[in-house]
Amino acid sequence: MAMAKVHTNPILRKSTVSPQAINRRGVILGKAAPPAPACRTGAYLSAKSYGRASRVAIMQRTSARDIETVTSRSAVTTAAQGDAKTVLVVGPTGYIGRFVTKELVARGYNVVAMARDKSGVGGKKTPADVEADFPGVKVVFGDIKNKESIKAAAFSQGKVDVVVSCVASRTGGIKDSWDIDYEASKNVLDVALEAGADQFVLLSAICVQKPLLTFQAAKLKFEEALMASGMTYSIVRPTAFFKSLGGQVASVQGGGPYVMFGDGQLAACKPISERDLASYMAECIEDPDLQNKVLPIGGPGEALTALQQGEMLFKILDKDPNFIKVPIEIMTGAIKVFDTLAGFFPSLKDAAEFAKIGKYYAAESMLVMNENGEYDASMTPSYGNDTLEDFFKKCVNEGMEGQELGDAAVFGQK
After folding, report:
1. 280 Cβ contact partners less than 8 Å away, ≥ 6 residues apart
2. By CB neighbour count within 10 A (0-12 exposed, 13-18 middle, 19+ buried), where does 393 fall?
3. Residues 104, 109, 115, 117: what is their CA dihedral angle, to the nearest 10 degrees?
4. Reduced to 3 states, what is the DSSP secondary structure of residue 46?
5. How many C-beta atoms surround the C-beta of residue 95 within 10 A?
6. Measured between alpha carbons, how far is residue 65 from residues 209, 300, 313 in Å?
7. pLDDT at 193 over 80
């Protein structure tokens, strides 16, 4: 596979694209997108089913002059702002949801966190565990797959001004993606609209701009529903998270090789820390420039390939580089095998989907795509101060506790 074209011009910070900007496919950013093609829940949606010209990806078109420096704001919102608004967080026990919930508390909002009875990584947290995690938060429990449960748990005891959704499917499997990334998210939106909520901040993902996977199609369909709802919205599409790049720290530290696909330069990303992402999402509540827009966002610094990430880690550990280069064709072959077997054994459809997810993240950059369909680091806005290098150093010195990937784990990390 050809190396991803990545520009590494000096990166500036915040996108100020007008909500009326129009991308090359005629989709108006900041407006409701055309309806997605009809499909059955659980059906695998390939790029072919969308078509290059007709797929519903909403591409954030920017240029160098559309990006300006963002300076970090105070971590604490004025008491007047916080006291006046009640913010409901759905998905508060996930990796990003935890930090978003605590950031909102720090800023003075009245925070209600709606969790499942069994939540957290692997569903191991009890209600008591969740309540202990969130001092200063009103924790409620309910099922986002059920509208009545959402109403009773989160909307029955006073007005909710803002909904912040950090909901995501645990596995990326076909049914799980549609059940959670679309159906459950839509339940929350419907109930919020009925209850009179004013604003919705959504944690999405930058990879939905090139939807080849089921979870991406489900997220896109919900994005469209949100934009068409009439509610003030912010759709935050982060690049890679630090934790997703830290899965090999322990093995390399113990003397193992760093595993990468191809020459390690197939794809690049501008990873963002959970702390910086939480801050950015909180700012969406008060900053009009971040509202009614699709907001791709990465961390500070240049885009990094897998090769550069590995070299950084070996340098931190003061070890000679030791790479294992896995041909990307292995993933292609595995996908063909699983797809064939899934035709006879439907239970293997998710296995085929997981193989496709693995290949996607190995071969596709987590950067904004320009109007030519190329990944472009210079068009990918940056935010925050935390760097991947500092994260690697912290993991080397303190371990990966608190960075558990759960069902998304690779390279043996849990």
Report:
1. 236, 272, 297, 383, 384
2. middle
3. 120
4. coil
5. 23
6. 22, 18, 34
7. yes
* Residues facing residue 241 across a β-bridge: 272
24-81 pLDDT tens trace: 222 334 433 333 333 322 232 333 333 332 333 333 333 332 333 333 444 444 444 4
Q: Of 346, 343, 405, 404, which is closest to residue 175 (Cα–Cα)?
A: 346
What is the C-alpha to C-alpha distance for residues 245 and 394, in angstroms, rounded to an integer? 13
pTM: 0.79
Q: Report the alpha-carbon distance of residue 148 to residue 342 in Å, rounded.
A: 36
Nearest to 383 by CA among 283, 292, 304: 283
170: left (phi over 0), alpha (psi -120 to 50) or beta: alpha
CA distances from 102 to 92, 185, 313, 329, 345 (A): 9, 21, 30, 43, 44
Tens-digit pLDDT profile for residues 249-307: 999 999 999 999 999 999 999 999 999 999 999 999 999 999 999 999 999 999 999 99
For 302-313, b/e burial (b = at least 16 CB within 10 A) is bbbbbbebbbbb
Q: Give the distance, in angstroms, between the CA of residue 5 and the centroid of all CA atoms in the same chain.
A: 22
Q: Which sign does the torsion angle of CA 190, 235, 275, 178 carry?
A: positive
- Contact predicate 205/365, CB 8 Å: no
Measured distance CA(6)–CA(8) in Å, rounded: 6
Distance CA 369, CA 395 (A): 31
How does residue 126 score in pLDDT terms, banded at 50, 70 and 90?
Answer: confident
Residue with tokens 């100020």: 16
d(CA 103, CA 285): 12
Angle at Cα 177 formed by Cα 174 and Cα 181, nearest 5°? Answer: 165
How far is 316 from 110, CA to CA, in rounded Å? 41
As given in the structure block, the two tokens for residue 24 are: 């090359």
176 residue type, one letter = D
Please give the Cα distance from 167 to 152 (Å, whole number): 19
